[in-house]
Amino acid sequence: MTAVPDITLNNAVRIPQLGFGTFQIPPEETRETTLAALEAGYRHIDTAQMYGNEKGVGQAVRDSGLDRADVFVTSKLDNGAHAHDDALQAFDRSLEELGLDHLDLFLIHWPLPGRGDFVETWKALEEIYRSGRAKAIGVSNFQPHHLRRLLESTDVVPAVNQIEVHPYLTQDDVRAVDAEHGIATEAWSPIAQGKVLEDPTINRIAQRVGRSPAQVTLRWHIQRGDIVFPKSATKKRIEENFDLFDFELSEGDLGEISALNRDERTGPDPDRFNG
Ligand code: NDP
Q: Ligand 1 site: residues with CB under 6 angstroms?
């Protein structure tokens, strides 16, 4: 099995480019499902306070027998905890739930434009970062204007911006602004929660290269340089989604998939969503 490449973040922390997503995995199934992912070879797990399943993620990491240093764990701040002191307390709760002494990456989950000020929230994350209990900090669902405001008003440049990206929403503008500032793009809902898997172009390419539509879509993300963490509750798909590193798409294939963009979101619009 070919190894998952690392991406080096802007503070020199390394993150496996392929991870495992845990949104909508019920708390009581999270330990078992996350353990299946770790057994399949994943070394990067994406969770969030909002998912209610941090406990199961932490149990799986601890029960896996792997060294803590060999698993990259991300969590995200709940929308109800944007005030400075609330953010600090919520971070402590995350570590408690996970049963870990540090996170590898901690994100502001949503900018929440109508609900207070994410600059204040970011300053709390900067304190957490300086304490060493989060090895990197970043944002999620930030549009270019949110990023500019943050960069003008704070010290630490986010290590990542986690945004919805898939062939129907290629997000070239946000990805370009991320890249301009040394912010790595993480692509959430990388297969659009399954919606792109019926696409005729993706199916034609999949047939030609002898891979599944999910593998072709995930490989497209990898070759574009984004970090991805597909979610599956099924062992067979967990393994399928990990098996991406012994084939390559041509420039022509990549271009055809990128041309499927129709700016179609599966999730909320960050400029409107207020949690
Ligand atoms: P994904 O694009 O990863 O799709 C998950 C869905 O696709 C599930 O229904 C799964 O079904 C199905 N699926 C997975 N693999 C395959 C396959 N090989 N063949 C067919 N179907 C498949 O969606 P998510 O929304 O879960 O996004 C991934 C991760 O991104 C999340 O889990 C979360 O960690 C993060 N995220 C972050 C957000 C943010 O605001 N920052 C928002 C949303 C997601 P099954 O489980 O039954 O196999």
A: 21-23, 46, 109, 140-141, 162, 188-194, 197, 212, 214, 229-234, 237, 240-241, 267
